Amino acid sequence: MRADVITIFPDYLAPLDLSLIGQARRRGLLDLHVHDLRDFTHDRHRTVDDTPYGGGAGMVMKPEPWGEALDHVVSGHDGRPVLVVPGPGGAPFTQQMARELAGRNWLVFGCGRYEGIDERVYEDAARLADVRVVSLGDYVLNGGEVAVLAMIEAVMRLVPGVIGNAESLVEESHEGGLLEYPVYTKPARWRGRDVPEVLLSGDHGRIATWRHEQRLERTAARRPDLLHTASALTSTGFGELAVTVATPADLGELLTLTHACWLQEALGNHTLDIPAVHETLESLTTSLQGWQTYAVRSGGRLVASVRGRLVDDDWHIGRLMVAPDLQGRGLGRMLLEHIQRVAPAGATAYSLVTGAASDRNHRMYRKAGFRLVADPETPGIVHFVKRRR
Ligand code: SAM
Fold first, then answer.
1. Domains along the chain?
2. Contact residues for 229 (Cβ-Cβ < 8 A; gap 6+)
3. Mind listing the pLDDT tens digit for each residue in 135-178?
4. If we measure between CA atoms, which residue out of 379, 377, 382, 307 comes closest to residue 343?
5. What's the pLDDT tens digit per position in 177-225?
6. Atom 23 of ligand 1 has which residue's CA nearest to it?
7. Global pTM value
8. Which ranges of the chain would DSSP assign to H, the alpha helix?
9. 152, 160, 150: which is closest to 106 by C-alpha?
10. What's the 137 CA to ligand 1 centre distance in angstroms?
11. If you ran DSSP here, which 8-state letter would residue 18 be given?
């Protein structure tokens, strides 16, 4: 990963020499270049700001030094970088965006100061780079440097090799749309407080169930907005859709929807030998613990669902279902996109199975970039796989 940072305070970026990011630089995983914007000025005072047209308080960063700096940084190298300009009016910086940026091999960061950068710089830079204005949060900082430090750290820890134990990325907060479960270390009793008994049990199944419940509870208590990922599925022509992580309260309707959808699938494939057709409240309850299940509601009615589970580094996608009366309108395709988007950082591939005769599903999966892989051992069923970018 190459990263260039343009700033009037190059010293602000010094912490990037420390800790894991510093090590990543020394090991050649991050090729970082910090540029002083004032090196691209031509007056005695190295001026980078001027008064705003139209009046008003504060100063605005002049376009000429920015234009020259960006030309210098970008031209002369192969490829087209992403230019990230931090700004409180930008798109929110999220784990998903960090993951996207970690997949690029060249990022340029432009740190604004004062009232910001002359707007024409953004327009002109689009010749050279994919420009993204990105906000660290709904508050105002004095400059972009602190935001760039945070973004580089969040992005770099997702670049393979930067964090020694990649496993530790998998269940972190914001992976899979939930916050992390509480963590404990020795001693088992401290100031009269015991570590939860389940964690000392050695029963990995119980521990996984407990942790998943804790993730749900904690997310509901601290960040209920994360359970509602409705924005992922807006403008669908279905009205307002609410996508939530399914909880036991959804089980009754989920069971009905499962039977309705898979009975239809069974008829199409001329077999009743499909596990979903025989789903019970009990088996569905258990599945909620092992799988990350999403429920989609329209006007309060549960109309669709999908689930995912990480097995090694493979994100298994299952039970993609849309109420029979709403099929063929793009909801399945959107859910398929959704479940890929929320896959944890550790996932390197997606996989799913479907009926050999489910032509409509085959078309949807192929369109979404999945590839059919033969499995002669399970007649009537086919596998689809896709590598994660
Ligand atoms: N006048 C600007 C506005 O209201 O949008 C705020 C300018 S701020 C004082 C100066 C610089 O700090 C911005 O150009 C940007 O680089 C950075 N900055 C401030 N708040 C930020 C945030 N929440 N996220 C990212 N960068 C921010």
1. 2-164 (3.40.1280.10), 176-224 (1.10.1270.20), 230-387 (3.40.630.30)
2. 177, 243, 244, 294, 338, 342
3. 999 999 999 999 999 999 999 999 989 987 766 666 677 776 77
4. 307
5. 778 899 999 999 999 999 999 999 999 878 887 887 788 788 878 887 7
6. 88
7. 0.69
8. 19-26, 63-74, 95-102, 119-125, 145-156, 167-170, 204-222, 224-227, 251-268, 281-290, 331-341, 359-367
9. 152
10. 10
11. S
The dihedral region occupied by 350, where left means phi > 0, alpha psi between -120 and 50, and beta the remainder, is: beta
Alpha-carbon distance of 311 to 164, in angstroms, equals 20
- Rounded to whole angstroms, the Cα distance separating 192 from 199 reads 17
Q: What is the mean pLDDT of the chain?
A: 90
Nearest CA to ligand 1 atom 7: 115
Angle, in degrees to the nearest 10, between helices 331-341 and 359-367: 50
The protein residue with its alpha carbon nearest to ligand 1, atom 19, reads 141
Centre of ligand 1 from the C-alpha of residue 136, in Å: 9
